[in-house]
Specification:
Blueprint (H helix, E strand, L loop, with lengths): L1 H31 L1 E9 L11 E8 L4 E9 L7 E8 L9 E9 L2 E6 L2 E3 L4 E12 L8 E5 L2 E8 L2 E6 L2 E8 L5 E5 L6 E5 L2 E6 L2 E2 L10 H5 L4 E3 L8 E4 L4 E5 L4 E9 L2 E4 L3 E2 L6 H14 L2 E6 L5 E5 L4 E5 L1
Parallel strand pairs: 1-8
Antiparallel strand pairs: 1-4, 2-3, 2-5, 5-6, 5-7, 6-8, 9-10, 10-11, 11-12, 12-13, 13-14, 14-15, 15-16, 17-18, 17-25, 18-19, 19-20, 20-21, 20-22, 23-24, 24-25
Length: 325
């Protein structure tokens, strides 16, 4: 009787042990389904992050453009590099799917820094991505931003670590390089051409020639016209000149004589009152050019400034005045 009871106890114990062992592989199997992505976010610029900055790392499906998994890290005053670890269930990643990992930093709820997407393939265990280098997300990333640099007007368009610089009729492709402060972009073919972005402005050098600091104008219609003098685009030996003052006065040279008058802005609508001129006699060709310019000037109805800095004053009909700084 005692032997029977002992045997029964041994069987029950063995059964319990087997049940426990069967549970271990199940738990391990669940862990194997996780794919962990590790790395850090960093940037080259010596720019401090505000206390409210939030680091974001996401895994995105490039086919559906949907976020598969993401993590948000409140930095609370911490600075780069920012280490991250993101675990995703492998079952959420198709074996033949196309996925990328992208890092970013938000400031005041807006995207301020962003990395290039890094390809991610489904695998088991841990995927080490190293450093995801961030670049400033400029407000004008999808649109060219016009900046006056002294008497030279340029257009800059940022896209990650690349930048397009347009100055007059010349266009340059620049790439970001390490800099002590701000973000410096150098021409891919000519190291003597660069733009050093600092805040919303910057410093400019083109083919070895340095220009005054590029300072953004305020976002008002008048500010876009005021400042440096405009010169008409013409084959004439003495192009006309236009100066739009902050006091609502326009003045300049019509090619021979000086002129002055009043102008009024309303959005892109521009009207110029009758101008007064000096009465100096010039060569017939110059006088003919001047007469045509002054006639168009009094017929101007609106204006536009192109991405390359060209100013167009549209007059009634098909007449127009084109000028550059």
């Amino acid at each position: 009787m005692i032997r029977s009871i002992a045997a029964a106890v041994m069987v029950l114990g063995a059964g319990s042990a087997l049940t426990g062992c069967a549970g271990v592989p199940s738990s391990v199997s669940e862990l194997v389904q996780l794919q962990t992505v590790k790395g850090e976010l960093a940037y080259r610029e010596r720019i401090a992050l505000p206390p409210d900055a939030v680091a974001v790392v996401e895994i995105r499906d490039t086919v559906t453009d949907k976020v598969v998994k993401d993590t948000r890290i409140a930095l609370q005053g911490k600075q780069v590099p920012v280490p991250f670890e993101l675990a995703v269930n492998r079952n959420m990643l198709a074996a033949d799917g196309k996925y990328v990992v992208r890092g970013s930093i938000e400031q005041q709820g807006k995207l301020a820094w962003v990395s290039k997407p890094v390809a991610l393939t489904r695998s088991s265990g841990t995927t080490e991505l190293g450093t995801l280098l961030l670049a400033q997300q400029h407000q004008a990333q999808s649109q060219a931003r016009t900046l006056p640099c002294g008497d030279r007007q340029i257009s800059v368009d940022f896209s990650g670590e690349a930048m397009t610089l347009v100055a007059g009729r010349s266009s340059f492709a620049l790439t970001q390089v390490p800099a002590a402060s701000g973000a410096k972009y150098v021409d891919n073919k000519d190291p003597q051409t660069w733009f050093w972005s600092k805040g919303q402005g910057g410093m400019l050098q083109i083919k070895g020639k340095s220009y005054p600091e590029c300072v953004p104008v305020t976002a008002t219609p008048a500010a876009a016209l005021q400042g440096a003098e405009w010169r008409t685009v013409s084959k004439a030996s003495h192009p006309a000149r236009l100066n739009f003052g902050a006091d609502g006065r326009i003045s300049g040279s019509a090619g021979c004589n000086r002129y002055s008058g009043q102008y009024t802005l309303n959005g892109d609508a521009l009207t110029i009152g009758k101008v007064a001129t000096t009465r100096m006699a010039c060569a017939p060709a110059a006088m003919k050019q001047e007469t045509a310019f002054l006639k168009l000037l009094n017929q101007v109805q609106r204006y536009a400034i192109a991405a390359d800095g060209t100013l167009t004053l549209q007059a009634a009909g098909k007449g127009k005045i084109t000028a550059r700084r």
